From TrEMBL:
Limits of the Integrase SAM-like N-terminal domain: 74-111
An annotated Gene Ontology molecular function: DNA binding
Matches recorded under InterPro entries: Integrase_recombinase_N, Integrase_SAM-like_N
Gene Ontology biological-process annotations: DNA integration
Pfam families, sorted: Phage_int_SAM_3
Statement: the UniProt record of this protein carries the keyword DNA-binding: yes
Superkingdom of the organism of origin: Bacteria
Protein name listed in UniProt: Integrase SAM-like N-terminal domain-containing protein
Record's keyword terms, sorted: DNA-binding
Length: 116
């Protein structure tokens, strides 16, 4: 079994810790068919430990699977998306996209954050 199970008194959650690629890692979110759930009980932490162990055995372990995604600020996403798409677009289309997003989308939705 990979890692050890511990309890964080401040957060009131169990976690699984162990070394992955030479660095100590801590996981306190267990993947389910409904997304990640916090390890509120030892039983859930044991399931998490088992899931990580199976993924490592099968060569499919990815730390991102066990970490909650950070909220995405829409304004930042728009800027990154425009920069990524720019080489594929004609000058007129690039201008139209930039103008539409900057004048209509950003003022209304740009300050919102979303989970990816």
């Amino acid at each position: 079994m990979w890692g050890k199970i511990g309890f964080n008194k401040q957060r009131g959650l169990y976690y699984v810790s162990g070394k992955w690629q030479g660095k100590r890692q801590y996981y306190s979110q267990c993947p389910t068919h409904n997304g990640l759930i916090p390890c509120g009980t030892r039983r859930i932490a044991e399931r998490l430990q088992e899931s990580i162990s199976i993924d490592i055995e099968n060569g499919q372990f990815s730390p991102e699977k066990y970490k909650a995604s950070k909220p995405l600020h829409l304004e930042n996403y728009i800027e990154k998306w425009l920069a990524l798409k720019k080489p594929e677009l004609s000058e007129a289309t690039d201008y139209d996209y930039s103008n539409s997003l900057n004048r209509h989308v950003k003022p209304v939705l740009g300050d919102n954050t979303y989970r990816t």
